[in-house]
Amino acid sequence: MPDNKNDKIIPNTNKLKELFDLKSDKASNQDIIDDIRKDSVFKGPNLWILIFAIIICSVGLDINSTAVVIGGMLISPLMGPLMGIGMGLSRIDLDLIKTSGYNILIAMALSIATSALYFFISPLDKVQSELLSRTSPAIWDVIIAISGGIAGIIAYTRKEKNNVIPGVAIATALMPPLSTAGFGLASGNFQYFWGALYLFLINSIFIAIGTYIIIRILKIRRKQYVDPKREKKVKRIIIFLVLIFIAPSVYTAYLMVQENIFEKNANHFIKQELNQPGTIIISKKLKYHKNKPEIELTLYGNPLDSIDIMQIKSDLSKYNLKNTSLVINQGPDISQKMDISSIESIKENMKSDILKTIYNENKANLEIKNQKIKELNNRIKSLSQDTIPLKQIGKEASINYPEIESIGISFVPKYNIETQTIDTIPNAILKLKTKMRSNQLRKFNKWLQTRLNVEDINIVIQ
Fold it and tell me: Any bridge partners for residue 406, and if so which?
């Protein structure tokens, strides 16, 4: 009797092929070609759908509504021309590439113009988080785009169309970058314009590449040419276009991966090496450049001396950050005057009141704010506890004002939101034996101002 044990161990390859067969429920090659060719053209209904989709998406970005943005992406007809380019490259169909490319350019121009017009007349001018997230591509955008292109063309080549294509339109997010580019054009912010346009092009290229891959796998026949010379010429043009598409895209994806690795290593380095007692990181900037990446940190609390900084910089190589430049900006030393809870409170206040202003402004404003912080640092150092004759002041106060049991004096930073200036103000904390009359309190205030040579002082009675 034959032994069937091996038959149970060895996988049934036919069943596996059947399970992953892309040709199952596949439409005819001619139907696929005709459908993609038809959807590659923007005219009539497609053009109007595109206009209103970009308006919906622009409104969603303007009011920071993710749901509205998704609605605009859901009805977007942009996938058709991109699939047309991918199919044209695969089938060596130069006419389809020209038609699809021409129509995607029309779609881009019309979308950006519509979005720019909307943002120009919109009364809202705040840059929302939904807008900011569409200004620079990441490696995840590349992965989503090529996966979306593959999923989209697989769904497109079925006999029965399903809900995959609208889902791909949402995942690949083609509309929001065009809306953001329109915002950049309307507001004169060309950094947003070029960043968003670059994100759209990256998404578009990888969707086309995904389409190209699946069309080749499905072995949809190439376009036949009567003239062999013309066929050879078209093939050369197609190869050239494929290289133009793929080479920069692969290089861009490589740079994105390198940037992601740099950010991961930099964050690990900061967490391990900059976790110093009494020192708080209130600002972190990671700038990736191919030859010279940079980590810029702003610290608050116990200052690091030059030896500490040199040691920290020497540890960069341990985290694969050998050529990275480390810039450390240090704020005033307040650790000996305030407890940790006070430092945390100042950290939060500075984040909300100062840092949002400093680090969201342009480079010129940032330099001004940094200069003000340095001036504040110098002022606090000049008014530190070592220069305040607290013991002598306490003796004089007890003689002139016997109601006072104890006195404490400290200088704290104050940020004026209206004038956007930073200053220090002395605080005098009094503990009284008996209640002081208001005229005595005013007299004490003037005496202490004269004693400390300051124009203003804040009296706090415990």
Answer: 431
pTM, entire model: 0.56
Cβ contact 297:269 at 8 Å: no
Same domain, 129 and 146: yes
Q: For residue 10, tell me if it sits in a domain.
A: no
- Residues 307, 437, single domain; the answer is no
Asked if residue 141 and residue 272 are part of one domain, the reply reads no
| Domain shared by 109 and 193, yes or no | yes
* Domain span holding position 151: 21-223
Q: Given pLDDT bands bounded at 50, 70 and 90, which one contains residue 337?
A: very low
Collapsing DSSP to helix, strand or coil, 225 comes out as coil
Amino acid at 40: S
CA 387 – CA 395 distance, rounded (Å): 17
> Which residues touch 353 (CB under 8 Å, ≥6 apart)?
415, 417
Residue ending a domain, among 363, 382, 401, is 382
Instruction: Compute CA distances 160 → 27, 31, 63, whole Å.
Output: 8, 12, 37
Q: What is the mean pLDDT of residues 275-299?
A: 81
Task: Work out the average pLDDT over 390-403.
Answer: 81
Backbone angles phi, psi at 53, to 5 degrees: -65, -40
- Spatial distance between the Cα atoms of 184 and 131, rounded to a whole number of angstroms: 10
Q: 52-56, 211-215, 252-256: which range is least confident on average?
A: 252-256
pLDDT at 372 over 70: no
Domain boundary among 348, 382, 416: 382
Distance CA(378)–CA(452), nearest Å, equals 17
Cβ-contact 400, 431 below 8 angstroms: no
The arithmetic mean of pLDDT across residues 245-260, rounded, is: 76
Smallest CA-to-CA distance from 90 within 229, 195, 238 is with 238
Look at residue 40 and tell me if it is in a domain: yes
Token pair recorded at residue 160: 């029965």
- One domain for residues 202 and 177: yes
Sign of the torsion angle spanned by Cα atoms 153, 159, 164, 165: positive
Number of domain units in the chain: 3
Give the bridge partners for 422, in sequence order: 415
10-19, 323-332, 418-427: which has the minimum mean pLDDT? 10-19
Q: Which tokens is 130 given? A: 């939904």
Query: For residue 304, what is the DSSP state?
Result: P
Which residue, 363, 410, 380, 368, is CA-closest to 300?
Answer: 380
- Pick the residue with more confidence: 142 or 106? 106
Nearest Cα to Cα of residue 406 among 418, 417, 415, 393: 393
The residue that leads in pLDDT, 368 or 187, is 187
CATH number at residue 183: 1.20.1080
Alpha-carbon distance of 89 to 230, in angstroms, equals 16
